[in-house]
UniProtKB/TrEMBL annotation:
Enzyme class: hydrolase
InterPro entries noted in UniProt: Beta-lactam/transpept-like (IPR012338), Glutaminase (IPR015868)
Subunit comment: Homotetramer.
Native source species: Paenimyroides baculatum
Signal peptide: 1-24
GO terms for biological process, alphabetical: glutamate biosynthetic process; L-glutamine catabolic process
Protein name, UniProt field: Glutaminase
EC number: 3.5.1.2
Keywords, ordered alphabetically: Acetylation, Hydrolase, Signal
Length: 342
């Protein structure tokens, strides 16, 4: 009788474990099949269905050189869960990172100083104000977050080194993440930003007056230069993948692997990466994203993939109109919203 009971329990144990194995295999199979559906043909369909939205936007011209961007150029790129890069459209079209560079500078600053020291003098807050708004700077002396211009200027000032050392560190990190040593900054755009960046200069001196910044305008120049780094949509997809996967590069290089840093960057992208549109964007798309007025958006699908889009015409918030629509379409198609049941 004891032997019979033992056999029954053994059979039950095997049955339960086989069911679990089958369920896990099914989940794995589903993930793989989803990846297999992300093809060049699919991306081209998404691009074609949404490129007309560009006509609803306006190319940024408050920085004169940005106003010269081709409004018809458009590109869409994805780095899937296996690190495979798939791109369509104007894949070779270069554009400046602008505010997307802020997440790279934040990474470098936190690596060198620690999160506590970096956020001692700025907040984790979102905002209902545009990217170049002073926020509460004049009242508290502290920027709202590192994604608005004031916080980004303070962030790059925390990176160690004289002259353009801080900028070179940001550029080096961009090159590493994208595995593209040909990336550089556009000097013409940099000089245009420097010439017209009076609001940013005002923020710099308010923070200098309150003791948050101790250096010279070289630190502000580093900010203008990092914004002028030129990339492609594919580079943005690789950046999105990097932060989505614990700071591991698309080819598996894990030299900078850091789960906490990955969480920090993605949380700031979610809270403030799309400026005052961030709340609505989170509701509709539900993915950590960072835009730039150069027309690019980088997206992290946590634990999975990276997405990069480019289309220069912007909406009133400073986000790419067609880029947003491509991400929305793609996210719905593959059920990527992190708030949706899986």
């Amino acid at each position: 009788m004891q032997k019979s009971l033992f056999i029954k329990l053994f059979v039950l144990f095997v049955s339960v474990n086989m069911s679990c194995f089958s369920l896990n295999a099914q989940k794995k199979s589903t993930a793989i099949s989803t990846d297999n559906k992300i093809t060049e043909k699919v991306l081209q369909e998404v691009l074609d269905q949404n490129k007309h939205f560009a006509s609803q936007g306006k190319v940024a011209d408050y920085i004169p050189e940005l106003g010269k961007m081709n409004a018809d150029a458009i590109a869409f790129s994805v780095v899937d869960t296996n690190g495979k890069v798939i791109s369509v459209g104007d894949t070779d079209k270069k554009f400046t990172m602008q505010s997307i560079s802020k997440i790279i500078a934040l990474m470098v600053a936190v690596q060198e100083n620690g999160e506590e020291a970096v956020f001692k003098n700025m907040g984790y807050f979102g905002s209902d104000k545009p990217f170049n708004h002073f926020g509460s700077l004049e009242i508290t002396g502290k920027p709202l977050n590192p994604m608005m211009n004031a916080g980004a200027i303070l962030t790059v000032s925390m990176i160690e080194g004289d002259g353009e050392t801080a900028f070179q560190k940001v550029l080096k990190m961009v090159r590493f993440i994208t595995k593209n040593n040909n990336i550089n900054y556009n000097e013409t755009v940099y000089l245009s930003e420097k010439e017209t960046g009076h609001r940013n200069r005002g923020m710099f001196y308010i923070m200098k007056n309150s003791g948050l910044i101790n250096g010279t305008e070289d630190q502000l120049d580093n900010y203008f230069k990092q914004c002028s780094i030129e990339v492609t949509a594919e580079d943005l997809a690789k950046i999105g993948y990097f932060f989505a996967n614990e700071c591991v590069r698309f080819d598996g290089d894990a030299i900078y692997k850091n789960t906490d840093l990955s969480k920090l960057i993605q949380s700031q992208m979610m809270v403030a990466g799309m400026y005052e549109f961030s709340g609505e964007y989170a509701r509709r798309i539900g993915l950590p994203s960072k835009s730039g007025v150069g027309g690019g958006i980088t997206v992290s699908v946590p634990g999975k993939m990276g997405i990069g889009v480019f289309s220069a015409p912007l909406d009133s918030h400073g986000n790419s109109v067609a880029g947003y629509q491509m991400i929305l379409n793609f996210s719905k198609r593959f059920g990527l919203n992190i708030f949706a049941p899986k």
